[in-house]
Sequence to fold (223 residues):
Amino acid sequence: MPILLTLAIVGLMGTVSDAHAQGPGEFKRTPSLLSTRSFHTATTLAAGRVLVAGGTDGTFVHRSAEIYDPATGDFTDTGEMAQFRFGHTATLMNDGRVPVTGGPKHQDRFIAEAEIYDPSTGEFAMTAPPSSARAYHTSTLLQNGKVLIVEGLSNHFEILSSAELFDPATATLLATRFRWPFLVQGCVGLGIEQAGVLSGQTRETRHAVKKFPEKPMIESRDM
Fold:
């Protein structure tokens, strides 16, 4: 996939060793990440620390994770994921845990497994699997505490028209669908059980990074 390769190169250029901590109105260089990463996730935890998970160095895919502590400015190892992932999502929930979903572990093999990071133990644990393997999707915390996982790409780089809802109370994923497939560019919570989804690329435009529908579609769904 030429586009993905180009994005990977750009990502690597920006993530090899340029991890920064934010100062008042400026950026300040900190010690480097423990591993070279792009297409990883960076999730702010409840205590203000940042979980950096997965990604690729351009040759190998990681399942390692590390924690950035703004109090010390250092990165330290934490537990490893069960799966090698990049292009996945990791979303902070209200209880402080982080569900990690999807992503390729190889160029054309996407993951239909989910796991949860618990900052109190520093470990990842497998949870209920999603119904579809997906990558380059979105994952959004709703006001009711559930996490909406929307669309993305399937194993054959087809754009999915499905979504799933993760319920932390039951540790289950409930599948739902959209009226049309598109590669989501944004998803925001609108209310207690609603989310607004802004599309970017359809099947016809998935190979053009900057080519979007003339009038982007917005779909609001009750969850």
Summary: Residues 1-20, 180-223 have pLDDT under 50 and may be disordered. Helices lie at 2-15. The first helix runs from residue 2 to 15.
